[in-house]
Amino acid sequence: MALTLGLILADAGLDSTDAIVLRHAFMAERGGIHADSSDEEILAYTAEQSVASQHFLAKPPSRWLVFVAGGGAEVRLWSVVKKGGEVRHDDTRRWFDLVPTDDLQRASNIFRDALIDCYNFLRDNRYTYQACIQVTPKGALKPVEKPNHAIRI
To answer: Among 67, 83, 111, 133, whose Cα sits 20 to 30 Å from the Cα of 4?
Structure first.
């Protein structure tokens, strides 16, 4: 079974049909964010969206998974925010009340623990690996204690 965002959200108790993924790049325009932006700046940047439906959903879902640039083509999960509603708008922009949540903390901990466990196992036993996280038949995520796809080097 492939590990998908839907499975990760389900494991965290979230409905994937009520979530959107946003990826922020570093940019100077519109009061954009940069590598040293504070959490408050990223939240404010995320809360301001276009009125035009071709640029942003007319009726956005309640959970927003916010990723920010992490260097090169990489991104990192900054936060999952809950949309409380639209607080104001003008002719081109609208602003939402967003509250950071810990919705994916459990999944984040599973990934972290699984990768640390895999790294330690592989380092100690001189293996490379192909998989460190297992998806159970019910869609739950758990660390693989001894990767069955490990290759001895």
So the answer is: 83
Q: Give the list of residues 6+ apart from residue 31 with CB closer than 8 angstroms, or none.
A: 44, 45
Task: Find the angle CA(98)-CA(103)-CA(104) to the nearest 5 degrees.
Answer: 120
Distance of CA 102 to the CA centre of its chain: 11
Q: Which residue has the higher pLDDT, 117 or 83?
A: 83
Burial 129-142 (b: 16+ CB within 10 A, else e): eeebbbbeeeeebe
Which is more confident, 59 or 72? 59
Once rounded to an integer, what is the mean pLDDT over residues 67-76? 72
Helix (H) / strand (E) element for 144: namely none
Side chain identity at residue 103, one-letter code: D
In terms of DSSP bridges, do strands 74-89 and 151-152 run parallel, antiparallel, or are they unpaired?
Answer: unpaired
Which residue would you say has higher pLDDT here, 137 or 55? 55
- Per DSSP, helices labelled H in the chain are 5-11, 39-47, 105-125
Task: Quote the pTM value.
Answer: 0.70
